[in-house]
Amino acid sequence: MGMLPGAINISLPALLRSLDQLDRQNPVVVYCAGGYRSAIASSLLRSKGFTDVSDLIGGYGAWADSTLPLIVPAIEPSDVEETDFLLDVREQDEWDAGHSPTAIHIPMSELPDRYEELPTDKRIVVICRSGNRSAKVTAWLEAKRFNAINLTGGMKKWNSQSLPMRALSGSPQVI
């Protein structure tokens, strides 16, 4: 197994002792060989206060064997069209706190089992908190021949532009 460019190698058993090596303000992407340990690592990091954590779908093996593009198409929140299909790939607590009223929620971790629910005749605008996880999902969907585009800046930018948001209860916010 290799390493992704710019990655920090921290084993799962050492993760909790190594939190000081990670910046809580920046997105964190975790991966392992096949995706199982990275799912555990993602949960651990979220439980320790990391708010923008995702894991690489299918692990390193899927990335190394893929034809995923290095650059994905992106769109500004203000350029989203009414005919676009908005796909929010954040975790349930993030969705509950605030989301676009027209978005459909399929968490990133569930997408490999649920991508057949996506339309093949519309542009899919992929949304996360900051644009990091959604960029990876956009690349993955493009490799599956979907017309996908990443929402630049994610829900943080969406919210900063005062675009419509809903929450499960209370005032919408981005977490």
Short summary:
This protein is an alpha/beta fold and 175 residues long. Helices cover 27% and strands 13% of the residues. The strands form two sheets. A five-stranded parallel sheet has the order 3-7-6-4-5. Strands 1-2 form a two-stranded parallel ribbon.
Explain the layout of strands and helices.
Elements: E1 28-30, H1 36-47, E2 53-55, H2 59-64, E3 74-75, E4 85-88, H3 92-97, E5 104-105, H4 111-114, E6 124-127, H5 132-143, E7 148-151, H6 154-160
Parallel strand pairs: 1-2, 3-7, 4-5, 4-6, 6-7
Description:
- The protein is built from six helices and seven strands; from the N terminus they run E-H-E-H-E-E-H-E-H-E-H-E-H.
- By secondary structure, the chain is of the alpha/beta class.
- It has two domains: 12-64, Rhodanese-like domain (Oxidized Rhodanese, domain 1), CATH 3.40.250.10; 74-160, Oxidized Rhodanese, domain 1 (3-Layer(aba) Sandwich), CATH 3.40.250.10.
- A five-stranded parallel β-sheet has the order 3-7-6-4-5. A two-stranded parallel sheet has the order 1-2.
- Helix 1 (36-47) links the parallel strand 1 and strand 2 (53-55).
- The termini are far apart.
